[in-house]
Design a protein that fits this description.
Elements (H helix, E strand, L loop, with lengths): L31 E10 L5 E10 L4 E10 L2 E10 L9 E2 L2 E7 L3 E6 L10 E8 L4 E2 L3 E5 L2 E21 L2 E18 L8 H6 L4 E10 L3 E10 L4 E10 L2 E5 L4 E6 L6 E10 L4 E14 L22 E8 L14 E9 L2 E13 L21
Antiparallel strand pairs: 1-2, 1-12, 2-3, 3-4, 4-20, 5-6, 6-7, 7-8, 8-11, 9-11, 10-11, 11-12, 13-14, 13-22, 14-15, 15-16, 17-18, 18-19, 19-21, 21-22
Length: 381
């Protein structure tokens, strides 16, 4: 029997969805993926730790990353390797590991120290859920007739405890907010062909907000995606309370104040509606720290490493980026940025992530093209 025809350990369990071994996905699309992202938010804004791991079955790649923002420095650790039958059952690449203690409840997140740089990034942190996982809307995107993105996703919020080390410092992680997103499906990986559809259906504009927020007694998830003309292709604002999905809070509308000369938000107000009490609600957003996903974390349009790209067997990379120097990473402004934020809602204060990206034309914001930015007055939304 050829090695590729042998069953794998997952085939012992009654989890199959199609008549294939669990080592195979039900699509031959090269862009098939299965991955997760964790955000660990220090409520003081001093630190922001983002980490994740992904599997790309039709490319034979597994990779992972972690980035820690401290002041104006972003410390990054990345690893990539060949996907094998053995490592499909371990969420581990190089020094980076995500261990599932109890599915949908408890995880141990770790990054081993670099023996060549003992002052580099390392951590061991427990992540515990405070609320049940919440499905996000089914997400699809086409370029002409080609389906280029289809993802099934859920999001969850909890708390984190443990320790991390950087620059000779040992930081106790206690009282931090944790959010996580788990998704799988099809999503563009570098190397995707251009051709007629890319030429005849160029992206005019993209506007995105993804905001999981943890309060003491409730969890709120807001997500929206708009085209250049403001047409909304993805929309949800759902409140989780008392252990279950409580209510949807209408059609969110965001007023964003940008730093002049950029599309980087300084603060924001997201307008929501309580359908039970029939009253408007305002979700206030105060930015604490920011981490561009195109720097260190492998999201497009990163120019040094992106998810799913083959780097060879046992590849690892550690480096530090100066976020105070935009010229050192000019593509970061054209990628999604994750902002640790303090949120207010109905008299309560919470913490979470305000993930935002606005590129190209966006009529509701008044942006006319990719080079357009907020004017000298900060009151622009």
């Amino acid at each position: 029997m050829a090695e590729d025809d042998r069953p794998i350990a997952f085939d012992e369990y009654p989890v199959h969805q199609v008549p294939l071994s669990m080592k195979h996905v039900a699509t031959g699309d090269r862009n098939a993926y299965d991955r997760c992202i964790f955000h660990l938010v220090d409520p003081t804004g001093e630190f922001l730790l983002i980490l994740g791991l992904g599997v790309y079955p039709n490319l034979g790649v597994i990779d992972a990353y972690a980035t820690l923002r401290v002041g104006d420095t972003l410390h990054a650790a990345r690893a990539s390797d060949a996907l094998t039958d053995e490592n499909r059952t371990r969420m581990e690449v190089g020094p980076l590991r995500i261990h599932v203690e109890r599915p949908l409840n408890e995880f141990v997140l770790s990054c081993a120290a670099d023996p060549d740089d003992p002052d580099g990034l390392s951590y061991e942190i427990g992540w515990s859920a405070d609320f049940p996982a919440l499905w996000e809307p089914h997400h699809t995107q086409r370029r002409g007739s080609r389906l280029i993105l289809e993802g099934k996703r859920f999001v969850q919020a909890g708390r984190c405890e443990g320790r991390l080390r950087i620059g000779g410092r040992e930081i106790e992680v206690r009282g931090w907010t944790g959010t996580r997103d788990r998704s799988w499906g099809v999503r563009p990986v570098p190397g995707e062909e251009g051709g007629r559809l890319a030429q005849e259906h160029p992206t005019e504009g993209f506007h995105w907000i993804w905001a999981p927020v943890r309060f003491d007694d409730r969890f709120l998830m807001v997500v929206l995606q708009e085209d250049a003309d403001g047409y909304r292709s993805l929309n949800d604002a759902t409140l989780v309370r008392d252990g279950h999905r409580d209510r949807q809070l209408g059609w969110p509308q965001a007023d964003i104040t940008y730093h002049p000369g950029t599309r980087r938000p300084r603060d924001a107000v997201i307008h929501l509606t309580d359908p039970v009490e029939r009253k408007p609600l305002e979700l206030g957003v105060e930015i604490l720290a920011s981490s561009p996903l195109a720097v260190g974390a492998g999201y497009p349009p990163a120019d040094d490493w992106q998810h799913g790209t083959w780097q060879g067997h046992g590849w690892t990379d550690r480096r530090a980026y100066d976020l105070a120097d935009p010229s050192a990473h000019p593509l970061a402004a054209y990628g999604v940025i994750d902002h640790a934020a303090r949120f207010t809602l109905d008299g309560q204060v919470g913490h979470g992530i305000f993930e935002h990206g606005s590129f190209g034309r966006h009529d509701p914001s008044g942006f006319t093209g990719f080079s357009d930015v907020a004017g000298p007055t900060p009151e622009r939304s």
